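Input/output pair, single chain:
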Amino acid sequence: MRRMQEMARLQPGMNSTVTSPEGYNVVLNSDHPLLSRLLSSEKSEIEPKLQSLRTELAEQTKLVEDARLHSLPRSPRRLLPLSAKSYPH
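Output:
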């Protein structure tokens, strides 16, 4: 199909015969037992990996926040949001 579309672009007379879309939408019934089983098994396999990544992210975030807290001047010692544009030097 892709080749026919490329040829139609090169030869203007063929445009009337090739009117198919470049892509398709697929709709799946998520209530179907087979699809439900596949989704639940995939979730049970992925969830432990996601949990370890969430734990690692929380640890890294805490390290960054602690480092930012200790790098601020002694007074006032307030926690700035990560998106703050100006940091005290």
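The two ends are 61 Å apart (CA to CA). The first helix runs from residue 2 to 10.
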